[in-house]
Amino acid sequence: MSHIQVQDDQGVRIISFNRPDKRNALDLDMYKQLTEYLIAGEADNDIRAFMIHGQQNCFTSGNDVADFLKNSDLGPNHPAVRFLFCLLELKKPLVAAVSGAAVGIGTTLLLHCDLVYADETAQFQLPFVNLALVPEAGASLLLPELVGYQKAAELLLLGESFDANTAHELRLVNALVAPDALLAHALDKAKRLAAQPPQALQATRQLMRPHKHRVQHQMHQELEEFGIRLGSDEAKARFQAFLSK
Fold it and tell me: Which parts form a coiled-coil structure per UniProt (predicted)?
């Protein structure tokens, strides 16, 4: 069974993480599928918006660490790298529904979404420094712009988890929704986007993102430093401790 599931509904491509036994940790095959579904949806005129979600108790716990360490050459063809730049280049809007853990990429990908909804169980974390790494997905630029430098420093340098109310206060989340209504609410918003005039919708979205080239440059810098950090002694020690748990 695929760990990434896809369904199209009234102009919305719904993509879901489906690896509950690993708390929806993303391995390289999942990154490949995510990118393929997004690229195919971009090329399909019948698809006008995307929605992404996990299960009711978990969005994603981040990277599958063991799989990632076996494939740590972060060149342009690395599945995780391709996914990150695919997010940046999306022309069609992206909606996220977040329940439970949203760790690492589970939080940074939200910075590329247009609308984000969460329930009260959502828990966010950016534990990159905790693992002797640096942020990815342009988070070192996008997060300070969204929440201010001091709060971004708290979230990125301490790497502590924060709850749904905090995420809403920080404007990372548009609204909090009851757990049993979350997916329906997010899908309704995605369908409303899909019903809008598509060219005007996409043009407006692009106008709201005039700093895309800055983000792209920052992502390249992050990946370069990420690769260096990944090979460092302190990262090896942190990952060994993590995997031994």
Answer: none
